């Protein structure tokens, strides 16, 4: 057995340049394993057996899988994402559900279809996930920009082995749910790149790419006039501290666009920001010109959604008995007391949740919710068949794509285990954008116009806006959740 398993550096010593074949007692087939050299993969015998137990499954031999689980031990991390329940007046957690077993061998890596846009100083998540949601703890996860051999981050053998910048990381606790997203803290202009995410299971390798645009709105442009050697007059419109290069538009006194007659150049300063200059030759006769600079960075989905606001109202037929929905269906709060309402299949009976009226099966939908003054809340979407009775665990696998606030300033995306969202600005209004056809649910600080998190998945049944105002908590969390009025522009 030992002779069949590459020791640390053994791939190169045995002359294996491609894939080696190793086997394990209890696994009925030979499991291929990529030999990638001692610099990339230095594994002992026990670790190799653990990888085989996951990448091949070995489900026909429960003993092997049990040994693997015992070797790994209990996973440590953040609390499981249980929603709040009303039970005997106690503020306890809804529980139940579980983690999906990694039985499938084939998978793809799913990333966003559009660039992720963020701002300097914020934290950002470059979303990437396995479909189906396999356990990726034993996989290799490599994030790089231009050179595969020089990764920004490399996770292998159950640990992050390469991390060129400590601001870049991934949530190891969430790998078991197939989430391989890259997290970048305190974003800089230098983080503006096209990133590649490569995942190798030991049998199969897949990848996706995510474009990150770090937007900086620069100084207001100024116009100056000068003459060339031939005594021709020219106007120069310039501004500093932009990223990416802005779009420049020239117009004359009649409003005609004369941008085609201009030239533009830009150069980066020591901070990586752009100084932009656009020159427009003009004739001697009297005229008035204006110069407009505006960002041409891809707008986040919430921005494109401004023209497709959806009129969302709370459905009192789904509300937990402690919740009161206003007559217009735009406010919900916890009353601390069960109301005399009749139960029905749609109503939450233990967790203090409520759905909206009407679901979505296609298209793009955007709504905003006022969350100011609250110490806890949940927002997101849920599939029609998601469990509404008893204890509930909030995960995409269970049909809930949500973010929450806890303890007044602890924000998280619920992807199996809570993924902390380190926000520098406390949102007063949260925008939720559902692109059903693209399989994305995105959350934004609607006031600062900053992206919070995006779930990427595939949807096969109606989705409903989901909300929880949280328990009253002795008046500390008494403020309601309020759905903002529908915009018409």
From TrEMBL:
<dbReference type="InterPro" id="IPR043136">
    <property type="entry name" value="B30.2/SPRY_sf"/>
</dbReference>
<dbReference type="GO" id="GO:0050863">
    <property type="term" value="P:regulation of T cell activation"/>
</dbReference>
<keyword id="KW-1015">Disulfide bond</keyword>
<dbReference type="InterPro" id="IPR053896">
    <property type="entry name" value="BTN3A2-like_Ig-C"/>
</dbReference>
<keyword id="KW-0472">Membrane</keyword>
<dbReference type="InterPro" id="IPR006574">
    <property type="entry name" value="PRY"/>
</dbReference>
<dbReference type="InterPro" id="IPR036179">
    <property type="entry name" value="Ig-like_dom_sf"/>
</dbReference>
<dbReference type="Pfam" id="PF13765">
    <property type="entry name" value="PRY"/>
</dbReference>
<dbReference type="InterPro" id="IPR003877">
    <property type="entry name" value="SPRY_dom"/>
</dbReference>
<dbReference type="Pfam" id="PF00622">
    <property type="entry name" value="SPRY"/>
</dbReference>
<dbReference type="Pfam" id="PF22705">
    <property type="entry name" value="C2-set_3"/>
</dbReference>
<dbReference type="InterPro" id="IPR050143">
    <property type="entry name" value="TRIM/RBCC"/>
</dbReference>
<feature type="region of interest" description="Disordered">
    <location>
        <begin position="75"/>
        <end position="95"/>
    </location>
</feature>
<dbReference type="InterPro" id="IPR013320">
    <property type="entry name" value="ConA-like_dom_sf"/>
</dbReference>
<feature type="domain" description="B30.2/SPRY">
    <location>
        <begin position="292"/>
        <end position="486"/>
    </location>
</feature>
<dbReference type="GO" id="GO:1903037">
    <property type="term" value="P:regulation of leukocyte cell-cell adhesion"/>
</dbReference>
<feature type="domain" description="Ig-like">
    <location>
        <begin position="208"/>
        <end position="291"/>
    </location>
</feature>
<dbReference type="InterPro" id="IPR001870">
    <property type="entry name" value="B30.2/SPRY"/>
</dbReference>
<dbReference type="InterPro" id="IPR013106">
    <property type="entry name" value="Ig_V-set"/>
</dbReference>
<dbReference type="InterPro" id="IPR007110">
    <property type="entry name" value="Ig-like_dom"/>
</dbReference>
<dbReference type="InterPro" id="IPR003599">
    <property type="entry name" value="Ig_sub"/>
</dbReference>
<dbReference type="Pfam" id="PF07686">
    <property type="entry name" value="V-set"/>
</dbReference>
<protein>
    <submittedName>
        <fullName>BT1A1 protein</fullName>
    </submittedName>
</protein>
<keyword id="KW-0325">Glycoprotein</keyword>
<comment type="similarity">
    <text>Belongs to the immunoglobulin superfamily. BTN/MOG family.</text>
</comment>
<keyword id="KW-0732">Signal</keyword>
<keyword id="KW-0393">Immunoglobulin domain</keyword>
<comment type="similarity">
    <text>Belongs to the SKINT family.</text>
</comment>
<dbReference type="GO" id="GO:0042110">
    <property type="term" value="P:T cell activation"/>
</dbReference>
<dbReference type="InterPro" id="IPR013783">
    <property type="entry name" value="Ig-like_fold"/>
</dbReference>
<keyword id="KW-0812">Transmembrane</keyword>
<dbReference type="InterPro" id="IPR003879">
    <property type="entry name" value="Butyrophylin_SPRY"/>
</dbReference>
<keyword id="KW-1133">Transmembrane helix</keyword>
<dbReference type="GO" id="GO:0016020">
    <property type="term" value="C:membrane"/>
</dbReference>
